Structures are given as structure tokens and as C-alpha cells.
Automatic annotation (TrEMBL):
<keyword id="KW-0456">Lyase</keyword>
<dbReference type="InterPro" id="IPR013785">
    <property type="entry name" value="Aldolase_TIM"/>
</dbReference>
<dbReference type="InterPro" id="IPR000771">
    <property type="entry name" value="FBA_II"/>
</dbReference>
<feature type="binding site">
    <location>
        <position position="134"/>
    </location>
    <ligand>
        <name>Zn(2+) 2</name>
    </ligand>
</feature>
<dbReference type="GO" id="GO:0008270">
    <property type="term" value="F:zinc ion binding"/>
</dbReference>
<feature type="active site" description="Proton donor">
    <location>
        <position position="82"/>
    </location>
</feature>
<keyword id="KW-0479">Metal-binding</keyword>
<dbReference type="InterPro" id="IPR050246">
    <property type="entry name" value="Class_II_FBP_aldolase"/>
</dbReference>
<feature type="binding site">
    <location>
        <begin position="208"/>
        <end position="210"/>
    </location>
    <ligand>
        <name>dihydroxyacetone phosphate</name>
    </ligand>
</feature>
<protein>
    <submittedName>
        <fullName>Fructose-bisphosphate aldolase class II</fullName>
        <ecNumber>4.1.2.13</ecNumber>
    </submittedName>
</protein>
<feature type="binding site">
    <location>
        <begin position="229"/>
        <end position="232"/>
    </location>
    <ligand>
        <name>dihydroxyacetone phosphate</name>
    </ligand>
</feature>
<dbReference type="Pfam" id="PF01116">
    <property type="entry name" value="F_bP_aldolase"/>
</dbReference>
<dbReference type="GO" id="GO:0004332">
    <property type="term" value="F:fructose-bisphosphate aldolase activity"/>
</dbReference>
<feature type="binding site">
    <location>
        <position position="83"/>
    </location>
    <ligand>
        <name>Zn(2+) 1</name>
    </ligand>
</feature>
<feature type="binding site">
    <location>
        <position position="179"/>
    </location>
    <ligand>
        <name>Zn(2+) 1</name>
    </ligand>
</feature>
<keyword id="KW-0862">Zinc</keyword>
<feature type="binding site">
    <location>
        <position position="104"/>
    </location>
    <ligand>
        <name>Zn(2+) 2</name>
    </ligand>
</feature>
Length: 285
């Protein structure tokens, strides 16, 4: 177990039909809390970093934190670069030690996206790393990447041709899901997941997971969504936890940063543990 590969984690989840939380961390505290929440739940977990987080903290510091925090960990964990359209950042992270990347060329024409994704897969393989691919932009802007306009969905034939030509390990289709906070319950194309998986068995990544209902999660996971991305929910939990503690500290005029950190950590650990239970990955480590 311990530090594992994206493929080994999602392939097991895909075969057994459970979902693995893929959680975007924002700093050292959230990285440690997510990892420890997974340990408490005895669940595999995919720790995700956005391009914004990589640039703000630095790949060297982030990876040093990862190595330190995963030393001796006894549940399967992987480090994933999320939604990256920048080939230079992908190279930087692969060279540093990330073992999984999402090359997001969804704003390019499919043919050019496919051509470059083939190159990224070949590059990742030289590092023993794996690749997630997508051909449609997921609606919503996340950490400065994306668009608020819903992208046109490609045909099943185009999706299958992309999967087979590129050799990606995980595929992220647009199914009516969106990044950020849903204003209303989304209308999801569940059948699209089934159609892709039936034609080409491949673990599916569900983006825009924050805010879906239990029934929607369960249905999509049963169809093959083995990687379930969570970003907005962590950001909300992190900031609300800070806010609640600081309001109380102000009222009591008690200012103790370590207590603040401990309070926030407890909430992020609980979030991770609850997600593992919700997605069925708890106890799978």
C-alpha cells in the first residue's frame, strides 16, 4: 500500500464499483488532514493539486510536504495534478515526483487535444505516471481554469477514438456536471457514462462532485465513476471552519493559532472520512 499509482487505485475502484475521493488540497494543513482522514476511514485517496496551488506554494515545497506526510502511510495514496493546460507545469510536476496528471486541453480542437495528449501519456510513462484526459471543458471556472459556458458534448465515437488513441488511464466526460456551487440540482446524463464504459471499460472521473446528491453519486459510481473529484466542498469547509473559530476567538478575545489549526484540521479530517463512507471506499484499504 502506501504511495501507490493512480491506475492501481482507480482500477480497483472501477472493478468493485466504489468511488475514490480525489480531493483538492490548498496547503500543508489540508494535505495532512485529507491523508489522515483517509487513514481513519481505511480508504484510498487521491490528493489533488491545482495549477494555482502548485504555483503559489511551489512544486518543490509541495512535493517535500507530500513525501514527509506519506512516509509510512498504510493506505493507498496518489498525488495528482488537476486540470493543467500548461505542458511546462506538467513536465515540472512529473519531474518533481507527481505520479498522476490531468492534461486539460479541452479548449483545443479534439484532434489537437488528442495529438498532445498522446505526447503527455508517452512522457508520463517515462516517469511511471498516469494520465487523465478530457475532450470537453467541464462547466465552471476552478482556480482560474475553465469557462462558465457549457461546452458542446462530443459523440460516443469521438470519445472512444480519443480514449483508444491516447491510452489515457482515466477519462473525464462532461455529463451536465459543473465546477463550483450548483445553483440548482444538475440534470446529469447518466447514460453517457454507461455508454462509454460499455464500449471501452475505463475508469471515469466525475468532476464537479461538490453538491451532488447521495442518489446521484451512488448511480454514477455504480456505472463506473471510480474517481470522484471534490474541490469546492473542501474550500467551503476550510474557510467556514476558520471563520467560525475566529468569530469565537474575537468574542472571547483569545488568540491562539495552534488551536485554530487544530479546529480546522478536525473538520477537514471529518470531511474526508465522510466522503469515503459516502462513496463506498471506506474500509477498502
Amino acid at each position: 500500500m502506501a504511495v501507490s499509482t493512480l491506475k492501481s487505485i482507480v482500477d480497483a475502484a472501477f472493478t468493485q464499483r466504489y468511488g475514490v475521493p480525489a480531493i483538492n488540497i490548498v496547503n500543508d494543513l489540508t494535505m495532512e488532514a485529507v491523508l489522515n482522514g483517509a487513514v481513519e476511514a481505511r480508504s484510498p485517496v487521491i490528493v489533488q493539486t491545482s495549477v494555482k496551488t502548485v504555483k503559489s506554494i511551489g512544486s518543490q515545497v509541495l512535493f517535500a510536504l507530500w513525501e514527509s506526510m506519506t512516509a509510512g502511510i498504510d493506505v493507498p495514496v496518489a498525488l495528482h495534478l488537476d486540470h493543467c493546460p500548461d505542458r511546462d507545469v506538467i513536465t515540472e510536476c512529473l519531474e518533481r515526483g507527481w505520479n498522476s496528471v490531468l492534461f486539460d486541453a479541452s479548449l483545443l480542437p479534439v484532434e489537437e487535444n488528442q495529438r498532445q495528449t498522446i505526447e503527455v501519456v508517452a512522457q508520463a510513462r517515462t516517469f511511471g505516471a498516469h494520465v487523465e484526459g478530457e475532450i470537453e471543458a467541464i462547466t465552471g471556472v476552478e482556480d482560474g481554469i475553465g469557462s462558465s459556458d457549457e461546452a458542446a458534448r462530443q459523440s460516443l465515437e469521438v470519445s472512444l477514438r480519443f480514449i483508444e488513441a491516447t491510452g489515457v488511464d482515466v477519462f473525464a466526460p462532461a455529463i451536465g456536471n459543473a465546477h463550483g456551487v450548483y445553483k440548482r440540482e444538475p440534470v446529469l446524463d447518466f447514460q453517457r457514462v454507461t455508454d462509454i464504459v460499455t464500449a471501452h471499460p475505463i475508469p471515469i472521473a466525475l468532476h464537479g462532485g461538490s453538491g451532488l446528491t447521495d442518489a446521484q453519486f451512488a448511480d454514477l459510481i455504480s456505472r463506473g465513476c471510480a474517481k470522484v473529484n471534490i474541490s469546492t466542498a473542501l474550500k467551503i469547509a476550510y474557510m467556514k471552519s476558520n471563520l467560525a473559530f475566529l468569530k469565537d476567538a474575537e468574542a472571547r478575545d483569545k488568540w491562539d493559532p495552534p488551536s485554530l489549526f487544530g479546529h480546522v484540521r478536525t473538520d477537514i479530517v471529518a470531511l474526508t472520512r465522510n466522503l469515503a463512507e459516502q462513496f463506498g471506499s471506506a474500509g477498502k484499504a
